[in-house]
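Minutes, methods subgroup
Present: GH (chair), OT, SY

1. OT presented the first of two proteins processed in the latest run. Sequence and structure tokens recorded below as shown on screen.
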Amino acid sequence: MGGTVLLIAGAPVGRGRLVEAAGVLPVLSAVAPGVLAGADPAHVVELADPLEPQAVLTRLRAAAAVPDPLTVFVAGQLQLDRRQRLPHLALARTTPASVRYTAFPWHWFREELRLRTPGSTTLVLDLHADPECWEQLRAQPLDCGSGHAVYGRIAPPPGRRTVGQPSYLKAVATLLRSGYRPPLEQLHQQALARVAEESGGKGVGVVLGTGAPAAPAGSDPHTALADAVRAGRHTDADALAARWEQAALRAHGAGSDEALHWTEVRADLAMLAGDPVRSCRTWLTVAAARLGAGQAVDAPAVEAAVDRAHHQWGRIHDAARARELGPALAELRGRVPGRRAGALDHVRRQLEQLQEA
């Protein structure tokens, strides 16, 4: 079994930049892929100062779909959107007023990695927070999802007219260039010691070092699902998820987060099985249920459901099935426009072309 590595470095261009995030990529790229991944052979994907959040999402989604161990290195800066006050990874075009549309929502990391086998994913983070985000993080820690190992640090805003450096990741890369990858907890502590030494103990910030949760594999249904998908037993995987969905419905009721979680799992399983019709229909059901339960049209889970329904609809090659699902998607897109400009217009144009086909 090999490994996959995703290197992401993002920060605004111009006055809004708090950290020279991309400066760490040449140092990381000089490390042998197998050492970065902790497994050989290894596949490395690099994103330097990406412009669009959708570009990051596409790369993350592709990396998350690979069953091999995944290590995600992220350098950059965190900012809050003004409407929901949610942390985002700022990208090249991000400004304080445009965070919601030009930055990468941090909860997308959690959403895209949630189906991975516990213990198979590692996040190594070197982040600087703007003043608003830094203040919020003191009360609300950054949520990276469960089942993953998380190491790194979040630094406070640098001084005025000062641009910070991804010192933690540079220390990690320097240590790994020896060709030896120690246990991650040991590597983490060595990198922190270097940062503290270089900064006189002032530049570490909030330390992230949750480690990898234990995987009790026989009792975790997500592990069984991942095993079934890897073996190509998609029908068995859906049947297992359906049983958990029914159990959640009985225990918590329709519209509950517990029941909707398993409906979302079934939508993802349909995607992995190459069935975009079923995946699209299921995501439409999730979106409608969340809205029916009173969730806001810009709630992250609602937007994610509609975005994924839209994505899967675009993969349907059968014109008749696409025409069947298109009106429901258009109706939801009218209520949930999402973060991509022109999403509703795209659905309408595609429907017009399908009607002419």
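2. SY then presented the second protein from the same run.
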Amino acid sequence: MSSSTSTGIIRGETVPTVPSAGPAATEAADVTALLERGRTMAQPVLRAAVDRLAPPMDTVAAYHFGWIDAEGRPSDGDGGKAVRPALALLSAEAAGSTPEVGIPGAVAVELVHNFSLLHDDLMDGDEQRRHRDTVWKVHGPAQAILVGDALFALANEVLLELGTVEAGRATRRLTTATRKLIDGQAQDISYEHRERVTVEECLEMEGNKTGALLACAVSIGAVLGGADDATADTLEEYGYHLGLAFQAVDDLLGIWGDPESTGKQTWSDLRQRKKSLPVVAALAASGPAAERLGELLAADAKSNDFENFSEEEFATRAALIEEAGGREWTAQEARRQHTIAVEALNRVDMPDRVRAQLVELADFVVVRKR
């Protein structure tokens, strides 16, 4: 059987496209179904929560989630991959409950995630998300800040109004994860103004910024289902390392991703002077490419004309990062974190079906192209 080919994001090599039948296709279909289940089950509660917001925040939030366009007309926009809601529902099943038990947790985590996106887009100056203008670009910075704050408040309301001991435990985990997420964003911004950042510092930042909330997503449903702290903590370990793998892939996409798939500009992270894993790993290497990259980035930090750099100038920096080994090191780190995440699942007593689905979601995170 012949098939077309596509480029694998974490290796850069050409890999066969998944055929239309067979185990690989079944696994891909299973992941798609898991993501769709998370989105479908969480969305009615998510919409009801957003409807509580006072105008115009309700409309601004609806635009952000892709439910309406900039003119307020109904839209079928891309609301994201829904990885976190899918994890929250599986988390409840891992604890022996039904997926419905995890819905409030799924919604709460999705609200916090989108709170962070609204603020991050403004702080980073990103003008595009999910192939559309960002909220601050359409509705202004003030609305982006207000709606982000409101989504965080709603996340806590959705959990606490359950009125159970388990809801209180889940809320504590959510607020801790949110604080770590904010720590990570603060670290990310501070690193943009530093000439050098160590690999360890970068991993700590990304563990806070991405790992903490994914860790919460994959434990919160279990907590709502009555799981003990030891079980929830081990599920969080899976989620934390999955988050690091997820962010490593995102860092690759932030430099080499296809704008048609990512919805962002070419060389997006280089334009923002982000000290992402490929950049940090390249600078930590030895050799002429690493040395030249360091010289260019040091000059960039002092440049008054950085925003007017040509595509060729950004392409040169991306090529140096790859030549110095930053791209391959980050791909390997994504695979390493994926392995640690999957191994953590072996320490949790859960149905085999749920364990397999969590592994499939981990595989999806590391091989995704967008």
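Chair's summary of item 2: Residues 26-367 form a domain with the Farnesyl Diphosphate Synthase fold (CATH 1.10.600.10).
Next meeting: continue with the remaining queue.
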